Amino acid sequence: MPTALITGISGQDGSYLAEFLLGKGYQVVGMVRRSSTSIYERIEHIQDSLTIIQGDLHDQSSLVSILEEHQPDEVYNLAAQSFVPTSWTQAILTGEVTALGVTRMLEAIRLVNPKIKFYQASSSEMFGKVVEVPQRETTPFYPRSPYGVAKVYGHWITVNYRESYGIFAASGILFNHESPRRGLEFVTRKIAHGVAMIKHGLSKELRLGNLEARRDWGFAGDYVQAMWRMLQHDHPDNFVVGTGETHSVREFCEIAFGHVGLDYNEYVVEDPRFYRPAEVDLLISDPAKAHRELGWEPSINFRQLVEMMVDADMKRVEQVKKQKQG
Length: 326
Ligand code: NAP
Ligand code: GDD
Description:
This protein has about 325 residues and is of the alpha/beta class. The chain folds into two domains: about 5-175 and about 215-240, Rossmann fold (3-Layer(aba) Sandwich); about 185-215 and about 245-280 and about 300-325, UDP-galactose 4-epimerase, domain 1, CATH 3.90.25.10. The protein is built from ten helices and 13 strands. It has helices at about 10-25, 60-70, 85-90, 90-110, 145-165, 185-200, 220-230, 250-260, 290-295, 300-325; strands at about 5, 25-30, 50-55, 75, 115-125, 170-175, 175-180, 205-210, 215, 220, 240, 245-250, 270. Strands 3-2-1-4-5-6-11 form a seven-stranded parallel sheet, sandwiched between helices. A two-stranded parallel ribbon has the order 7-10. Strand 1, helix 1 (about 10-25) and strand 2 (about 25-30) form a beta-alpha-beta unit. The longest helix has 24 residues, at about 300-325. The radius of gyration is 20 Å and the shape is globular. The N and C termini lie far apart (about 45 Å). The structure holds NADP nicotinamide-adenine-dinucleotide phosphate and guanosine-5'-diphosphate-alpha-D-mannose. Guanosine-5'-diphosphate-alpha-D-mannose (GDD) binds near residues 185 and 210.
């Protein structure tokens, strides 16, 4: 039975990846950072099947100890400060975790067992002010946020440890992927939750930032399978993972509100407070290499994703409303 270590297991992707690897017969070890409150919301349904251990990407010795004790065959480095706006207000922390954290884990692998396979959660945010449309593995990076800059570092240090030490280190350049487990601060979940609050009479409006930004949005459950496939490939490499389609925030609103019979124009307020100091206007992937070499394809299209998220929040909000009433 192979063993996988997932950093960031309490996050959106960590929860889907853990489910997927358990289904493949893996022993799954999940690293969580110490917290005074519960952080198991996304994994409580599988918690009994996981080995949860404490560690932090800030803390090199915790990483070394975890690798020594659990001897994983594969490490999936999903932990990061992943919210783009926070990367301006906490730029140094973002660099420490999202950039240098990658080196700390790679160093731990080099010291403990360089045969461990490593997956780095790289991001389409690295393409930023895009210099090519669509974006592929060879497209030059032009990051537009401290988060994007940190991810560029994480990407290149992954490539460097592959080339310097022969470590099986893969970099997955994943475009935005969403789900009902997405954090509430990200725009897709903010919209889905906002729609449910308005439909249930608990809110009157939804304040958003730039409605014209375009993203290549897919379903997180599909994307974690691409991560695993990268580590089963015959050599470590970089792969772009996305749907090859792009949609605006406005289109997301239109479908989400429309799904419950509402017109977004009556509820969405564009609020400059949510604008970013530097925006990423357009992302669209060319996932041909992942299709060709990994046999990976998305199974959920844009409309299905939007409707899945709205349906999930409609149920959640309804439950909370009932609890409050009764
Ligand atoms: P997420 O929901 O924000 O999860 C981030 C995880 O990192 C959480 O488990 C968080 O723990 C953990 N973490 C943060 N700082 C840490 C630290 N110092 N030490 C240890 N763990 C720490 O993010 P996600 O959407 O699942 O994304 C997973 C990864 O893919 C991230 O690296 C993200 O940057 C990258 N990515 C995401 C997307 C996307 O569209 N979702 C696209 C491309 C790349 P807590 O629960 O304690 O906060
Ligand atoms: N969060 C947020 N809130 N975004 C808004 C809002 C709002 O109220 N209104 C408009 N937007 C726009 C943002 O300006 C951005 O252009 C777009 O919606 C998407 O924002 P997010 O959902 O916050 O995601 P992101 O694209 O910045 O970053 C996500 O995807 C990256 C991959 O490209 C994160 O998951 C990153 O961790 C990931 O690497």
